[in-house]
Amino acid sequence: MSDTLLTNARLIDPEAGTETDGALLISGGLIARVFAGPPPADTGAAVVDCRGKCLAPGIVDLGVKICEPGERHKESFRSAGRAAAAGGVTTMITRPDTLPAIDSPEQLEFVSRRAAEAAPVRIHPMAALTKGRQGREMVEIGFLQDAGAVAFTDADAVVTDTKVFSRCLTYARALGALVIAHPQEPGLTGGAAATSGKFASLRGIPAVSPMAERMGLERDLALVEMTRARYHADNLSTAAALPALERAKAAGLDVTAGVNVHHLTLNALDVGDYRTFFKIKPPLRDEDDRLAMIEAVGAGLIDVISSMHTPQDEESKRLPFEEAASGAVALQTLLPAALRLYHAGQLTLPQLFRAMALTPAQRLGLPAGRLSESAPADLVLFDPDAPFVLDRFKLESKSKNTPFDGARMEGKVLKTWVGGREVFAA
Fold it and tell me: For the whole model, what pTM was predicted?
């Protein structure tokens, strides 16, 4: 692979928290040098003029659902890989909520092999925490870790048996494994399709109080305090849950938390007249919650912004709101949606890429997410000001269930590199 020099770039460095004009040299799949200002003329590398656009570490998307095995008609490794590359996502951390669930080394080996064959970006799979994601029997955490699982989660299936969950945390602690949970109180959330309040009542939509999230998180954090396990709450969405998270971090627990980009950019009123593309899990929250989550990301209390990419076919979405499947595709909309916060003056570009690239990579022990020498040359070049109207049928994903269909957005990915190899060019 020949050396490549990316010149005339606006470097977004989430590690230093800076935006600077400069250049970057790629050699052997790694970042060889970072230049402040113009580079020397004698590097001998092929030159790519970035024309003053933003160059940032590729996004590390924690919590992507790829529907292999079981529902390949919704999303495959090939289609998800193309969507990721087009969205500036260079690493996908995939969920185990497939059919069947990824709960054995053999299944993990299958998805790892398929990913390597079909996807142009890096893929690191997570494994289920309990067999079949049924919350009754712990998986073989050590064997799955040896097979390449980067974390363990039952995704949106809450382990309701506290003894089983505490046993999982204890074993994970002994092995240094990361447990990722979706904190909710399932007795309250069962059957709910919206957040409780006047809007849900007027629309007649079954709803749940935001307190269900706080109750689930409080339980999880109590068990983390007892077991001292490594824990990540994957999809917080309410202001009510933040004080518990803040106390846990202040107490020195090894705890992090993430937020879905939809909960940062949409609110409960966007459901409008029962638009099922806006049905996600947890449901969209009130505007006060949305603003609280943005503030928490800016303060570093919320560590990770992810897409929670969840493909659903037309048949599962074209149903009455209460019956429709939850979830949205978001690999290609993660960056332009997040840039709404930048254009609104709520978060800076280094803050966004800290949450979308640096912190998820650090949490999983990956070398990605940095613009520094010897880091992998996983990069995205984008124009944060380029306007467009999103057409869902132009997305690379097989499923087209995005709440941003027809929305006016700003921010286009121009090029994506993985290990110094160009995998997307607009």
Answer: 0.96
